[in-house]
## 1
Amino acid sequence: MNVLVLGGTGAMGLHLTQLLLEKGIVTFVTSRKHRKPDNNLQYIQGDAHNIDFLKNILESNKWDAVVDFMVYNTLTFKERIDLLLNNTKQYIFLSSARIYADSKQPITESSPRLLDVSDDTDYLATDEYALTKARQEDILYNSGYNNWTIIRPYITYSENRLQLGVFEKECWLYRTLHGRTIVFSEDMCKKTTTLTYGLDVSKGIVAVIGNEKALGETFHITTSESKTWGEILAHYLYLLDKHLGYKPKVLLQKLNQFMELRTDCSKYQVLYDRLFHRQFDNSKIDLYVDTNNFINIDEGLKKCLEGFLRNPQFKEISWGQQARMDKTCNEKTPLSEIQGLKQKLKYLVRRYL
């Protein structure tokens, strides 16, 4: 088999690539950076958002499957869908379980989507992530093709990605390791959620690649285990206490205060996902992979956090966000910690004005 992975260098993509190689599948991965090939693994350097680049690689080989981790706006996706579906036996589209509306029952693949049931006209007028993914699913449903499979992962963590509510490690964990206070939502602490290790999600994806029964089907791939965000925060604090020798500081805010830290666009991630109770019924994907064998949340987070702490490497820090949190907590970040004059000024403006 020849499999093309578009944008496969993130939390799931790295694990997926390794699993494909273990099965002896010749794997090609697009990357903006130059990377050295390794046996059955080939890298194609370029921007998969560029339609000329995409057209060239799709038409250069006979692809048994294309796994698409790219993030498109709806119009861009619509412009590319025929190109993608015409040049592979199976197109695997990474959607998101954030598309689901609130549910009192464990969520199945046929549970209502926000796009279909929300009456928030301001929200529906946006192309917010959950709406974007649902609209792109509809493009596939209405494409006239059947050689696609939709995957809906939920919150997926890995050795280089660790989330707390709506915050990535570059926000909450960065603050912790620099002795500053974690700011979190009191309301969110009470909500049930689930986090799934990227390796386990990738096992589910590999299980449907090349499987004709998965064509024209939609699957969410998550662990069946659920915890409250408060329990997840407590587990992080316990692990960090062992590593640092002291328990990190936490400020829990009421929702209206917490929302002041969010931008107009990202507030919907709070309102229409993280404040929902999330529990999933995995019986559909269990026909292909046993989710009961997925690593449990506490053990998985421990493995990944401890792995990260052995050699902490953060991506870009939002100094505007850090400034707002410092202001809330009456804390200061030394300017020597902030790289570049522009970022220093952004921090100072948000922190003191």
## 2
Amino acid sequence: MNDRFPSQPNEPIDVEYQVKGEGPPVIRQPEKPKSDPRLNIILFIATLFTTTYAGAFMEIGNPGLALSQLYKGLPFSLTLLLILLFHEFGHYFMAKKHRVEATLPYFIPAPSIIGTFGAVIKMRSPLYSKRSLLDVGAAGPLAGVVIAIPAVIIGLQLSEIRLVSGLKDGISLGSSLLFSLLSRIAVGVVPDNYDIVLHPIAFAGWIGFVVTMLNLLPIGQLDGGHIAYAVLGRQRHRVVSYIMLPILFILGMIGWQGWLIWCVLALFVMGTKHPPTLDDHLPLDKRRKLIGWLALVLFVLTFTPIPFAFNF
């Protein structure tokens, strides 16, 4: 079965008859609204400013920093935005390949520690086949991590190893298997009582790993949910979604409370179910199964049980 399904199965169609009723009717699909990229560009510029400001604040530590000091935030900002761009355009170009209508990325500026709430694209038509489901779902995280990995390696080599004397107030970052492995490769074994003070580029790469992990959660219609549905099928996808919820709840109770927010989002906003495809009865080809399992391995490698720990 090919992937050229109609973009809107229930959309109305207009029927035009030839002059004087001669000949068969001509079916005309209504014109699709043209996309206007101006909002996307405005949001991107705003996010470039807020992330640059956040990066400069990390370097200087002065909330009243002058505009002339903003350039110090560019290493963090440009690295983070590049990771997000690759992630979202991975989805976008794969959607176009499968004839799925999708918007350009919408970046979300925010007055947060990193200056953004990420970026999203909107699918204007459903994903009707498991092949398109897996391809579009996996393309984003895989493309984003291609930039995040070298960013972490380069950033770690630029980072400082400092002596830590006792527990200090502040925020400490959790580590995933992949980040720990890259840290061992880039800086070697860190002695006791020492810690790595991440360079802004390394911090942006670390955020890229966290973004990848969150998107690959095998729940509902997240990227990981799309992949799980395509690889495991409808029933197993539902089981996995239900299993993940108590795991996240427990992690939220004993570790990072942000997992509790994800539980609430999964239950009341995103949902744990996934709409069926038209080819549920057909198996995936071996190449796409391999991509699906690769995405699962990436989820395990980037999984960070406690991304942030607050020491106050």
